[in-house]
Amino acid sequence: MIRQDELSRTAAARPAAALQIRLRPGTIGGYLILAVLSLVYLIPLLFVLLVSVMSSRQFALNAASLPDPIMWSNYPEAWVKGAFSTYFVNTLVYTFVIVFGTLIIATLAAFPIARAHVRGSNGFYVLFLSGILLPAGIIPQFFVMQQLGIYDTRFGYILLWLSRVALPIFIITAFIKSIPSELDDAAAIDGCSYIRYIFQVVMPLIQPALSVVGLIIAIRVWNDIIGPVIFLPSNSIKPISAGLLQFFAEFAAQWTLIAAAIAITASPLVVLYLFTQRYIIAGMTSGALKG
Amino acid sequence: MGRTAGIWPYVCLLPALAVFILLEIVPALGTSIFSLTDYTGLPHAPIRWVGVQNYIDLLTGGQTFLVRALGVTAIFSLLVTVVQNGLAVLIAWLLNVRLRGQIAVRALVFLPVVLGATVNGLTWYVMFNPLGGPVTWLLGEFGIRANLLGNAATALYAVIWVQIWANLGFSMMVYLAGMQAIPFEVYEAGTIDGTSPWSAFRHLTIPLLAPSITINVLLAIIGTITGFELIFVLTDGGPAFSSQTLGMWVFNQAFFSGNRLPGYASAIAMVQFVIVFAIALVMQYYLRRREAVL
């Protein structure tokens, strides 16, 4: 960032040189590639938005045209026909419970591991780490959930997501290790109880890490499709991604409604992305960067 | 504090540990056990040991399926890994120099990573749709009449296109972070020696980017062999199994085929696991050694 600012400042100081640089064939080629790239990403997204407000008649005649008349009614129609209010509430509940549930159990586990308060804390650390590398066993997961009677239940789906606690523990442990432990000893003298200490002292201290991890989990839950398709066959408890796919199957070929349904599903994510882009990108790529 | 806390640290560890072992570790290891049974997935049907019968079936009766799935997986994995990483490095390189509007382009290219497989898949389903989809219309202008997703000859390549489109932003961001970690002085030294931008890219950026390349390539290979979300949304492995990778096959065979056979599917999952494990080991060794040489 700093480097870029410096560059633009020197460029402003020497306009002639800057002009020269901008007109170099390499730079023109660079802009050309950026333009093509932008089109490749904008066209599909804009097309879905256009189709989402198009009349089905116009779509059948000439889809590659500006919508006329603008059919805002596609949105309420898709919302009602697809029972999106149910899916929306389901997803909000899943996202909320899973994000906070994961952050709590991950922090509770990460603190004693990071501070070596349990015997063999390193062993536990490696065990959790192995969860990042092991493949997900979807067939035994199905078996276990069926045996426990939590298959096709909200609780089962939430529990399944809570089990994906390895990466959060990995990140949070690293973060806790980076804060000095003197505070722990002071608290012990105070007689602050262990769990209360984690909730009232540790969690506020590691809040930046928790926000990023929470954000990433929220996006993953919102986008999960394989999980609900296998473990939540009942429509009434499906989250929105699976609801969208269900809608697509039921209203095949009604493209204008499908486009509206896609926009409905994507819009909360787009809004979230607009406001928290930096954290999302940093959080999602951090796993790769640490490796 | 730890010594005075008694059992509390263990109590804190317990919830995460319990749910993790029950639904992550045990299932991950359990696949190998189920691959030796005739598990049907029906709640009250007995599960019997069948030894290595599933593997024998896979190599004899199911061998055409296995060979086909391996072939599809190889094409999918190889093309996605090579094209996605090649493009991502080049674009990251472009975005790492001063071009106006590059911040917006970055954000735009990363957007599909956030939107997820269902939205990305259905967006392109609309684009590819044979009645009025822009891609169909564009190809029609060139005299090509094509239903890309509905044709066994083209479905896999249409899926590959969407897979790269969806994940390019992720690779690009990892490369960008890697490039920004390269000290500016390295390039300054290069400029004094009179290197051209291209040879600076080839001989300075790429070698210094080796750790990012290792992790990106590994993630792409593992992701394409095990992941199947986009394939599921776009084609469900069809038409005529032409886009059915190993991961897609496991899922269909276990839960959604005419005769659901999770036991048999577990054997396929084991084959998949062995392949991923072997590739990860070899890649790790090969790429890390290259890093060391460079």
Main β-sheet description of chain B? none
The count of domains of chain A is: 2
Count of extended strands of chain A: 0
Q: How many discrete domains of chain B?
A: 1
Give the largest interface: A-B, 104 and 93 residues
User: Rounded to an integer, what's the Rg of chain B over CA atoms?
Assistant: 24 Å
Description:
The complex is a heterodimer of chains A (291) and B (294). With 291 residues, chain A is mainly α. Chain A has 2 domains: 2-72, no CATH class; 83-250, MetI-like (MetI-like fold), CATH 1.10.3720. Chain A is built from 16 helices and no strands. In chain A, helix 6 (84-114) crosses helix 10, helix 7 packs across helix 10 (166-177) and helix 13 runs antiparallel to helix 16 (255-290). Helix content of chain B is 73%, strand content 0%. In chain B, helix 1 (8-34) crosses helix 12 and helix 11 (246-256) runs antiparallel to helix 12 (262-293). At the A-B interface, helix 1, helix 3, helix 6, helix 7 and helix 8 of A face helix 1, helix 3, helix 4, helix 6 and helix 9 of B.
Which helices and strands appear, and what pairs or packs with what?
The complex is a heterodimer of chains A (291) and B (294).
Chain A: H1 2-13, H2 15-23, H3 25-52, H4 56-61, H5 74-81, H6 84-114, H7 121-133, H8 138-147, H9 154-162, H10 166-177, H11 182-190, H12 194-205, H13 207-223, H14 226-231, H15 240-250, H16 255-290
Chain B: H1 8-34, H2 53-59, H3 63-96, H4 102-128, H5 134-141, H6 155-180, H7 184-192, H8 197-208, H9 210-226, H10 229-234, H11 246-256, H12 262-293
Helix pairs in contact in B: 1-12, 2-12, 3-6, 3-9, 4-6, 6-9, 9-12, 11-12
